[in-house]
Amino acid sequence: MPSPLETLKSRLADVNALRSATAMMDWDQQTYMPRGGAEARAEHLGILSRMAHETFVADETRRALDDAQGSAEGDDAAMIRVTRRDIDLATKLPTKLVEEKSKLAAIAHERWVEARAKSDFAGFAPTLERMFDIVREEAEHLGYTDHIYDALIDQYEEGATAAEVRAMFESIKGPQVALVKKIKEQPQVDDAFLYGNWDEGAQSKFTEHLAKAVGFDFERGRQDTAPHPFCTGWSVGDIRLTTRYKPYLGSAIFGTLHEAGHGMYEQGSPMAWDRTPLAGGVSLGLHESQSRLWENIVGRSRAFWERFLPGLKESFPAIGDVDLDTFYRAINKVEPSYIRVEADELTYNLHVLVRFELECDVLTGKLAVKDLPDAWNAKYEEYLGITPRNDAEGCLQDVHWSMGSIGYFPTYSMGNLLSYQIWTALQRDLGDTDALISSGDFASILTWLQDHVYSKGRKYSPKDLVRQVTGEAISSRSYLDGLERKYVEIYRL
Amino acid sequence: MPSPLETLKSRLADVNALRSATAMMDWDQQTYMPRGGAEARAEHLGILSRMAHETFVADETRRALDDAQGSAEGDDAAMIRVTRRDIDLATKLPTKLVEEKSKLAAIAHERWVEARAKSDFAGFAPTLERMFDIVREEAEHLGYTDHIYDALIDQYEEGATAAEVRAMFESIKGPQVALVKKIKEQPQVDDAFLYGNWDEGAQSKFTEHLAKAVGFDFERGRQDTAPHPFCTGWSVGDIRLTTRYKPYLGSAIFGTLHEAGHGMYEQGSPMAWDRTPLAGGVSLGLHESQSRLWENIVGRSRAFWERFLPGLKESFPAIGDVDLDTFYRAINKVEPSYIRVEADELTYNLHVLVRFELECDVLTGKLAVKDLPDAWNAKYEEYLGITPRNDAEGCLQDVHWSMGSIGYFPTYSMGNLLSYQIWTALQRDLGDTDALISSGDFASILTWLQDHVYSKGRKYSPKDLVRQVTGEAISSRSYLDGLERKYVEIYRL
């Protein structure tokens, strides 16, 4: 007869298989699925999500969890802690609600793609309204003491609260707006040479070259294209990146480096934890810290392009004979713009702030879904000084709401802060990181991150891990210092 | 409370979702999966197959089936008949055996790919031996009265037996060998211009153009590449073809037309039957009749290339200024060769005969797995007059055994016969099919097949369907007549 621990592991393996199936169906939907497959996909995702949920929250799983608790040690004890948190979160959600959300998400994704293509928010609004209803219901089931948002963000970032998020934005808003203002008074850098009709094959090849160079393992992953780049996976040995090809050459390059950051974090879990709850990133904020670290701190550094600019010019001759300094300034151009995923590093958090405030307002009933476009545009005018010309470049730009991922956006900003905070810790150990980057020694950097972050998987809580790695709680100091230092030089302030 | 019929349908929808997941994982494994994903894929496939099997054979499903039997009418009655056959087949197999086979198949696929690359049968033999053991065990569970093979082939072709297959080969072997012999005495046609270093992008584009022209719906399907072309799907609205690019230009072209034939059959099920047991092809023989019909009878006709040769020359200028007659003879060149999937129409069935006889011999213990290469080569010498130079072009060429699909091959030959037999019936209704083909009116042909075959899904047994469509049981007459007429002209016999 199997021990409770064995029973638990076997049940969790079943859940993992079902979730892997839905992850792959989701990946396929965003990369390769023909339009005709949408209806069946929605049904399949609904059914498999329900099965995963039912298997996970079944009495037998919980009983095995309770019975295994006492005797488990080391990794097993950590696995049990993580599973208990997950199962508590999941048990609060009725199976029917989970299935309904999953089905709606599949349909909403198709509607969102269409609506964005036609810049037709009205066509998407009823579906989004239904999604907010479901998410509101979810929050009530999950429970919260202070703010409905707390229930939602905790799913993505254990222990985070709306109040913390608000405080975080308070601490950075002032300095960032001031810095942006100073930059506006300086002559703008020129990045026109980064726009063109770039060959997709060349972009695919070059971005894979970069991802490989920094350490993403293509024996255990691959890259495809999707309208909205993302990283997913169903095994430590099979992690999928996506990127996209746009007239702005940086879209593909920094899109790939961003997703490769997520991907290397996922690939860095111990193989022994594959298909268990301990594998993968511990929270969305930590995850985002790694995508932003590789995208911004490494990928947008002068040292990085000291190494890769010659190759870039070879792959894209139309870029011309641009020198390193001009190139470096171009890829770090600061300019309030419409699209979050293409925002510069400095204004990025203001995009997130807009979404955070709108989500809170819709959730609490202060704002109707149908009024989102106007509210969105007003906030863009207020924080960024620009008004989207249409909803495609306004409130229809992100995939998240169609998926019901509400409460998710602030983790992007937490990631931005953590990327600099972790980098500061890394520099204390490794010293001259510019020298490592320009010489192509990404292995030293990856190994440090591997040792301190990736190999820990979900073993420690996000707050514990941040303390272990950086010696303190999440803080905006390194982030503000880093940006100040970087942009004072670039814009000669 | 749901009615027994509703309960049954809901259970079957769950099974369908699980099988769709395994189908997609299998598709991904053969098209995009990185090597590092193999181990987890094997585990996931094993678990999900077990779940599908358990859900399908569960008491609750069977009870709902029994209870729904009396009241069901029309399509529902047919669905119940089909489900009963499937469930009877499946219940005979122990869950553990199903899971073990599925896991082994995933591992065996990787081993087979490696072994074929290195032409190293010995490296694959132990895995294959284990697979034959499992299949033998399967046959014993399924049961048979006459020959162990009957239990296996019945899974793919309801009601077919080893004796029938043997009789089929008896009826065609003589005339075919005689025809091949006569052809050997004639001057050989030249197809050298079909070999070259063809651009993969151009092949992809041209083959998709052909598939679209004949009627494969790319809104409800797509084409990718795989080492061994196949067609799969998980919805009437989402059917996936694969093809491959080789120095022989015909590999991609006829590979695509072949898989598009399978694909159009799948796309032709009524949308109302999507995700139910009634959707899809009724048997492998019928399925193959459609792939061969579109590949050989349509795709290798003079009329077809009257229409498409100019476009082919534009896409592949290196082919030169070949005239229609030369091209038509080249693509119908008859020459005993090593690779089944690239065999000409005339010698194809001899390849199948080799596999059928070897499968019987291994299953009954007359032949050891380790001796397969020698036996294989001896039979190729006997039936085709050639000896493979290595196992990659010998007994390692096919994917089937690695998947445990033993008893499957004869359905290819049944498909060859049925393709001509069904075409003869179609011609009785449509008259001058050459005129339809050369004018690009594939819609008339597709509509006829749609009405008579595809729209029937699995509603009737294969034997019933063949009688309905052609007015008789499977017969070699149309097939032998068709080949005789075609090759007498091509080789000026």
TrEMBL record, chains A, B:
Keywords carried by this UniProt record: Carboxypeptidase, Hydrolase, Metal-binding, Metalloprotease, Protease, Zinc
GO MF term (any one): metal ion binding
Record carries keyword Protease: yes
Coiled-coil regions listed: none
Active site residues per record: E259
Bound cofactor: record note: Binds 1 zinc ion per subunit.
Function (record text): Broad specificity carboxypetidase that releases amino acids sequentially from the C-terminus, including neutral, aromatic, polar and basic residues.
Full protein name: Metal-dependent carboxypeptidase
Organism of provenance: Fimbriimonas ginsengisoli Gsoil 348
